[in-house]
Amino acid sequence: MTAAISTAIESGDHLLVQAGTGTGKSLAYLAPALTVDGPVVISTATLALQSQLVEKDLPRIGKAIAPLLGREPTFALLKGRHHYVCLAKLEHSDEQDPQDSLFDAGSSGSGVKWLGESGRLGKQIERIRDWAMESDTGDRDELDPGVDDTAWRMVSTPARECVGAARCPYGPECFAELSRARAREADVVVTNHSLLSVDMMAGRHIVPEHKLLIIDEAHELADRVSSAAQAELTPDAVDRTARAARPFVEGEEYQSLVEAADALTVGLAETPAGRITGKLPTGIVEACTLLDGATRRGLSRIGEIKAEDPDPVRKQQAKSLLDEVSKTAQRLLEDNEHDVAWVEHEPRRALVVAPLSVAGLLGEKLYEDRTVIATSATLTLGGNFDTLARSLGLPVSPKTAAKPGAAPESASGPGWKSLDVGSPFDYPKQGILYVAAHLPRPAASGLPDATGAELLALVEALGGRTLGLFSSRKAAQQAAELLRAKTNLTVLLQGDEALPLLVRKFREDRNSCLLGVMSLWQGVDVPGDACQLVVIDRLPFPRPDEPLASARSAAVDEGGGSGFAAVSVPIAAIRLAQGVGRLIRSTSDKGVVAVLDSRLETARGYGAFLRASLPPFWYTTKQEVVLKSLKRLGES
User: Fold this and answer.
1) In whole angstroms, how far apart are CA 234 and each of 19, 108, 110, 357, 521?
2) Three-state secondary structure along 313-336?
3) With CB atoms 3.0 to 4.6 Å apart as the test, which of 96, 147, 187, 362 could cross-link to 366 if both were Cys?
C-alpha cells in the first residue's frame, strides 16, 4: 500500500485502496504522505479515527522519522466553525431572545423545553464563559464535562452566520480563525468528510491549499457530500429567522416572515410524509412563494454589512439566516429534475431537498489540482471497485490488481488505479459465515417467531458474547425481550443507556449480549473473546420509504436499468460488510457471523454479489455445524 501511494504521488494518478481491518493502513499512508512538499490533508468520517490519528499515529510516526527530516513534522486538526466557541456570540449570549433557548426543535419529542430548564441553561453558558477565558483552542470537544446542544448553539456560529474576522470585534482572538492559521502552517491537516464537502462546494477556500488528499473511510464520502448539499425548511427555523431579522426590518416585513412560517406549517400538515413525486403540492408551493418574497424583502432592507455597523455580528446572523431560507425556497420552486424533495413528519415537520446524485459534483470538484488517495476496509462490492468508483465520480472500470500485494495496473478510465491489499486475518480459519437458509423469507417488520427461535438457539449455544445487529428498533426490542425471558444472560439494548457505556459493559461481561440498530453496524470495536457471535436479522436493504434511495432507484428504472440492482443492492452490500466486520478485529479473534435471512443463500444474482462483498469466511448453511462450533467456543 505504501509503495502504491508513493507511485501515485509521483505520477499524479488517483488511487483507490481497499485495506482490511488490522493492516495498519493509517501508517501505510502517513509514511509516504510525509515525503510531500507542502501540506497534506487527511479526511475521516468518524471522530474515533480523527482521535487515533492525532493522538496516536501522527505523534508515533513523527518521532520515528524526525532523524530523517531533521525535525518532527507538525499536524493540526481542522473542524467546522460551529465546533469552536464564538467570543462575539458568547459576549451577547445572555441577551438572546428567551425563545431561542426555551423553545428548541431538537430538545424533546414535542419540540418544547421545560421553562425550568432555563436556569440550568444559564449555568451551562456561564461555565462555557469561564472555560473560554482559559482555553487555548475553544474546541467543544475539550470542554469536560460537556454541555447540551442548545447551550452550545447559543455560543457558537456556523460558517454561514460568521461576519468575518475583519468585521468582527473579536476577529484577532477568534478560535476558529486561530485553528485555520495553525492548519495553514502544519505539515498534515486532519479534517472530516463534512467539512471537506463544504470546502468543495464553497470553492476550496476553507481547507489549506494542498497537493495530496487522503480520504480514509472513503465509503462514507458520497453520503456525507449528499448531507452537505441537502437543505430543509421547518416552521421553527423560519420563526428563528424572523426573530433574528426583527431588529433590522420593518414591521410589515417581519410580519410577512411570520405569515410565511404559518403557511409552511399548514402546507406540511396537509402533505403526507414521504417523497414528493411530480409537481410540488399547492400548499407547499404557496408557502415557498411567500418565503421567497418575504426573505428577499428582508435581505434588501438589511443591505450590505459594514464594519462600523453598531451590531455587525447579529446583523450578519440575520442576513445569513434569511439568505439560507431564500435559497432553499427558490431551489424547491425551481423543481429541478436533479433534486429530490420530501416531507418529514417525525421527529419534526420538515420540507427537505437533496441532490439525486453527487457523483457529478465529486467528479468535478474532488480531483482538480490534487492527487486523491481513497481508502477503506470496504471499497470493493461484488469483488470489484466499480460501484464505489462510480459513486465517487470516477470513470469505470480500471484493470484492478486483484491479488494482495500486487502492483496496480493502469486504469482503463483516465487518471485512477486501484489496489486490494488483502487482510492480515485468516478468515477461513478464524470465522464462520452461517446463513440460516431454512428460515422463511422475511416479511413483516419485527422479529418473526422462527427467527427468534434461531437467535435463541445460537445465543444459548455460545452463552452470551453476542452482538445483535437488527434492521429495526422493533426487532431489536423483541429480541431483547425474548432473550431476557428465556435466558439468564445480561441483555444490553441500545437506547437504554449511552452507547459508549453499553459497549464498555458488553466488553467487560462475557455473559452479555448487546443488541441494537444501524449505528452499531459500524461503530463498535470489541476485539478478543468478548464478541464471538455477530447476528444479523435481515439483509440491510434501504426501506422503500427512504426518499433518496427510492428516487435514485426510480431514476435508474426510468433509464432502462434495474434500480434495485444499481442502488439497493450496493447500499445493502456496504452495510452488510460493515456489520460482518464487527466480528474479527485481531489475528487471534474467532467466532461466527450468523445471517438470519435466507435470501443471502437463495436469492439468485444479488445473493452471490453480497457474499462476494464479504470477507472469505468458511461458509455453511447447516445449523447443527454452527451450534457445535459455538458450543466448543463457549466451553473454551
Assistant:
1) 42, 16, 14, 24, 30
2) HHHHHHHHHHHHHHHHHHHHHHCC
3) 362
Q: Which helix (H) or strand (E) holds 454?
A: helix 449-462
Pairing of the two strands 274-275 and 339-344 = antiparallel
- Whether the predicted pLDDT of 116 surpasses 60: no
pLDDT, mean of residues 58-79: 92
Average pLDDT over residues 548-556: 92
DSSP-based three-state secondary structure for 19 = coil
Q: 428: which residues sit within 8 A by CB, 6+ positions away?
A: 616, 617, 618
What does each C-alpha distance from 215 to 54, 281, 379, 390 come to in angstroms?
15, 40, 12, 16
All 3 cell numbers of residue 33? 504522505
pLDDT at 397: 57
pLDDT of res. 112? 38
Say how far apart CA 38 and CA 210 lie, in whole Å. 7
DSSP annotation of 79: -
**Cell digits of residue 56:** 496516536
Q: Which residues of 486-517 are buried (b: 16+ CB within 10 A; e: fewer)?
A: ebebbbbbbeeeebeebbeebbebbebbbbbb
Beta strands at 350-355 and 231-233: parallel, antiparallel or unpaired: antiparallel
- Point out which residues pair with 516 in neighbouring strands: 469
E strands present in 188-285 = 188-192, 212-215, 231-233, 274-275
584 by DSSP, 3-state: which? coil
The amino acid that residue 464 corresponds to is G
- Phi and psi (nearest 5°) for 66? -55, -40
* pLDDT per position as a tens digit, 267-302: 999 999 999 998 999 999 999 999 999 999 999 998
Among the listed residues 617, 217, 569, 618, the one whose alpha carbon sits nearest the alpha carbon of residue 423: 617
Q: Which of 139, 141, 131 is nearest to 84 (CA)?
A: 139
| Residue 381 and residue 613 in contact, taking contact as beta carbons nearer than 8 Å | yes
Dist CA 77 CA 192 (whole Å):
9
Which residue has cell 466448543? 632
Dist. CA 150–CA 125, nearest whole Å: 10
More confident site: 104 or 341:
341
For residue 23, how many C-alpha atoms fall within 13 Å in the half-sphere facing its CB?
20
CA distances from 237 to 248, 265, 288, 423, 477 (A): 18, 11, 14, 48, 34
Q: Could you tell me if residue 294 is left (phi over 0), alpha (psi between -120 and 50 degrees) or otherwise beta?
A: alpha
Please report the pLDDT score of residue 317 as a whole number.
84
Please state, in angstroms and rounded to a whole number, the distance separating the CA atoms of residues 262 and 239.
Answer: 9
Stronger pLDDT, 164 or 28, i.e. the higher one: 28
Determine whether 601 is exposed, middle or buried from the number of CB atoms within 10 Å of its CB (0-12, 13-18, 19+): middle
Mean of pLDDT values over 97-125 = 51
How do residues 348-394 score in pLDDT, each as one tens digit?
899 999 999 999 999 999 998 899 999 999 899 988 899 999 999 99
Q: What is the largest CA-CA distance in the chain?
A: 79
C-alpha cell at 468: 445483535
